[in-house]
Structures are given as C-alpha cells and as structure tokens.
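Pinned message: reference record for dolichyl-phosphate-mannose--protein mannosyltransferase
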Amino acid sequence: SRAIKTNQDLLPETPWIHIFYNDFWGTLLTHSGSHKSYRPLCTLSFRINHAVGGMDPWGYHLVNVLLHAAVTGLFTNFSRILFGDGYWTLIAGLLFASHPIHTEAVAGIVGRADIGACLFFLLSLMCYVKHCSTRGSSASTWGWILGAGLCAGCSMLWKEQGVTVLAISAVYDIFVFHRLKMHQIISALYKRKNLALFFSIGLLTSWGTALLGVRLYWMGNKPPSFSNSDNPAADSDSFLTRTLTFFYLPTKNLWLLLCPDTLSFDWSMDAVPLLKAVSDWRNLHTVAFYAGLLLLAYFSLKGSSNERECSGKTVMNGKQNANGHSCHPEMEYKTLEVKSSLASKEENGLKKHEIQKLQLPSTENIVILSLSLLIMPFVPATNLFFYVGFVIAERVLYVPSMGFCLLVTVGVRALYVKAQKRFLKNLVFCSTAALIVFYGLKTVVRNGDWQNEEMLYRSGIKVNPAKAWGNLGNVLKSQSKISEAESAYRNALYYRSNMADMLYNLGLLLQENSRFSEALHYYKLAIGSRPTLASAYLNTGIILMNQGKTEEARRTFLKCSEIPDENLKDPHAHKSSVTSCLYNLGKLFHEQGRYEEALTVYKEAIQKMPRQFAPQSLYNMMGEAYMRMSRLPEAEHWYVESLRSKSDHIPAHLTYGKLLALTGRKSEAEKYFMKAIQLDPTKGNCYMHYGMFQID
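Predicted structure (tokens):
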C-alpha cells in the first residue's frame, strides 16, 4: 500500500524529481522516520506503470514477469562463460528460472526492486567481462568498463545491494579471468604484466567507494531506525543473543535456498526465535554451515588436484580424452573442445585474449566466483554493518540465488565427471532434472498462495501467526465478514498481545459495529503500546465527543495534535490523523459556539495538512465558522475552495447555496441545491435544505 497505493510520488501532479529525494515509500529520505530505502529507478518504473494503467495490477505483474525473464536470459548467458555451450549452462538457467525463492520478488510487486537490481547487476558484470577480454587490445575496453560502472550505479538505484556487483567483478577478474590462486596474488603485485589488472581493480574500488559515499550523504548520513518487531535480535540487550542469532540467520537463508519447503510473506517478529544460549541446538547448524563454507572456500583457493576435467571428460595426468583433445595437469583452466592445442593456435597467430575466449574456468575458479556471488550481495542483509528492518526476507535472496544455482551446477558437473559408470552418470542427471521439476512445481504452488491476499496470509500463519492473523483480519473485514475478522484479530493478539496496530484495528472494528465501550478499551491499549499512534487518539476523541464527554474529547484531540512525526515509519499517515484531530477539535469548538477558537484550530490544521489529505470538509467548516460570524466574503472563499478540492462534496453545495440565498443570489443558490440532490437523490437532508430555501 505505501509503496504504490498511497505513494504520492506515483501521481502525475507530483513533480517527478521528488522521486530522487524520497525513499521507496514516498517519505523524505532525510526524515528521521524514513526507511532509508533509496530506490528511485524502481519507484520511477511504478510511476510509469501508474501513468499507463493506473491501479490495474495486471500491468505491474506483467512488468515483473518480463523483468524476471530478462534476468533469467542474462544469467544463462553469463553461465555460458563459465560452463560453455551444453547441458551445464542449461541446468544453471533452469535452476534460476524455476527456483521457488523468487516467487515473492516476482509475484509481489514491491519485489521489482530486487529484480531490477539483478538485471543491471548482470549487465554490469557482462560489461566487465567484455572489458577483461578486450583489455590491452582494443580502445573499446574503456567503454566496457564505463558501462560496467554505470550499470552498477543503476543497480544500486534499483536496490542498495546492487553496488556489490563491483566486488563480484573484481573476483571474476582475479580468480576467473586471470586464474590466480590466493598465494599468487601478493607476488602478482610485483609483475608488470598485471598492471592493467590492478588498474581495473582500482577503478572498481574507487567507483564503489564513491557510490557508497554519495548514497550515505544523500540519506542524511544516518542509518534507519526500526521497531523491535521488525528485527527482534537487533533490539535485544544481550550481546550473546544478538551474536548467536545473527550468525544463525545466514544458515536459515541458505536452507531456504536449498530446501524452500516453508515460505512466508513475512519473517519478522518471532518467526525465527532468538538464540539465547550456547546450548540451543540450532547452533549446530551454524557451526556446520560456517565449517562447510570455510572448507569449500579453502580448497577452492588453495588450488586444484592432479585430476582435471576437460569439457566434461575426465583426464588423468595429461592423457588425451575420448575426443583426442589434450588437457595437461599443469594448466590452471579447462579448455573447450577445439581441434588443435593452444600452442598451435599461438603459432597460427591467434592473440592471447582470443585464445582465452576459448577457455573455460576450472571448477575451483567457478566455486570461488559462485561463493562470492552467494555471499557478497547478501552481506548488506546480515546486520554486520548496520541493522536491517527484517529477520529474513525471501526477496533479498533473489540476487544471491545466482551464486547458489552456479554452486549446484558445478557440484553436479563434478559428480558427473567423477562417476565412472554410465548408470551413475544417468543417476546424477536424473536427480538434477528431478530437482528442477520439484522446484518448478513448488513455484507453481507458491504462486497460488500469492493469487490473493487471503490465500497469502493464510499460508503464512504457521510461520508468523501474529502478523498473518492480523493481516487476514483486515482482509476479512474488507469482505464484511465481521465475526471472522474479529476472531482473526484476537488470534493475532493471542500470539503477540502488544501489537499496537492490531489493538487499533480491533478497536476500529468494534467502533464501526457500535460497541463503543470495547472500542475505547482497545484504543487505550493501543496508545499504551505505542503512545505516538495518532489514529487511536483520533477515534478515541470522536467516541468521547459523541458520548457528550466534551472535555475528555478536547484533551484527547489536543494531545494528538502535539505528537511530533519524528522517527515514525509513516509520517504522512500520522499527519493525516493529526489534521483530522484538529478538524474534529474545531468542530467541537464550533458546536459550543466558540467560533474564533474553531477558526484558529482549523488554520492550524491547514498548516499541518499533508498533500494526500482530502481538505473539502475542513474548508467547508471554515466557511461555516465565518458564516456564523457574519463574515460572508471569507465564508464564500472557503466554500468555493471546498468545491474546488472536491466538486461533488454535497455539504459544500448546501452551505454555499444557503450563503448565495442569504446574499440575494437566488437563481445561483437554486442551482447548488439542485446539484446536491442530483449527486445523492436518496439523501433527505438535501431535500430539507431545498425546501427551506423555497419557503424563504
């Protein structure tokens, strides 16, 4: 809702330049309550969607699907660089295309930020690959690195993690293109022939530093702040709890990639219980995960064994494979199937960079790149440098899943090559095909959950019952299933009793069903849980005013009007509630005949009124107050303003008609009375005012 439905940056009357000053949710980026999610290119795509199709969701979903198709194509093309033409590239592409973890990013509209970032991530990486292959032999190489830098900047403007492509590019250059081992990097610094390599790495580092510096400056040099329910571990006072939980979360994320059996639209609150002691058995998962990760990285960086793979054929100690192609153990790369050796190609005048195009990286090189692609884009979500506003978010795994798919593919290839019997080779292939099919089926099933809000929230009950039941209550209420909605809200509060939003929503439901005493009780609980919840003050004041408790209502409205919007997640909604409080306070003064005080409050409301607030009723009441004070020109001005802001506002037609009749403009007055009747022929109040006009 906040990213699209109520985001003022999508509206044509809002200057498009505002997109570059506001966060993803339409809040000023430097505001203390801003989420600091700076994704202007994604918001711009939403604005284009809105300009073309308004709020029709079909167009938004179409763009997401097309973007995912484009990303899948680019990823498959990149896989060809690592695996060559053949089954392995196809397997990598199919794994990425079908992985269920992508469902949230593709089926959920706001997930477009991750897909768009991934698109430009891959474009940047492909540009850098071209730069590497043309470096030192073509002037176009600088155009390619410029393109890599620009695409990296665009990726970051889709979503923050996009900037990590610069680090991935450096890993590709060092470990894949130049095939350096860890122990060779230091000695390579002193070799003149590697000057171009380190110059390119320097450019990547400088550009990345500049992008991050500008990004930090643009958001006001302050990190975002989140509620304890968004990220409970970050709010924990225990250093041990924070450490154990933050170390465990990457393990949980990897499990979601490996076995996406249980997926949820929301993993906040208590969806992942905190690890509060070393004795928690989940710490074994953490140890196993990091041990496996370190061992895999160590053996990949250390170097390769004497056994080599050559285009999917096993080659031992320099012997030829079945196709007669030579593959020597001292080589640090694998070769494509070519009709002559590299030496003969050099003799025939092929340049070094042209020969390198025919070479495929070794398994160890691909593992290093895959691990980097899995880990580095995920680092911003680890709470390592700053706290994030979620525990787990499936959409965040969209970019890292590329590394996972490459790891699975290279692992399957290694098993296939080592298998000696045809039966075992077929088993490897069939198992991989089954995995792709299972992933695809799970994606289809999960898309069914995203078909509508009710199904989505019901699917999340077992993971995050408090949030799922609360959201489900909102859906059921919109369907007029009042008793079911009330039960859903109470279920949510059973799991988490201090949720201010749920307490407020339950109070609102009770108020709308004339259960005012119960509603007041829940509004007070909501205020106790979150003292800055202006909407709870507003509805409390309205109930008190209707019950004749005017002094209590006045104090409630005044208290609401004094709540600042600092550090609030949605300052626009808060300002709307404060404006409504002032409007109702003015009405209270108006009913007591205190018109001057009413006007003062109305003027304050106009000053605090946000852009999205509908002001017609406020303007009309301003006119009413001036009318009672016999200041007719001012009254006419505000009646006209009310009708200008909403041309079908019936109360303004009636009040303006009365003013016109009072000033002798009877024919004009009759038009406004008749217009009010046309707007709502069933409204008896319109006929009453018109009848009184006719009597006069």
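Pinned by admin. Summary line: The beta strands are 307-310, 313-316, 334-335, 359-360.
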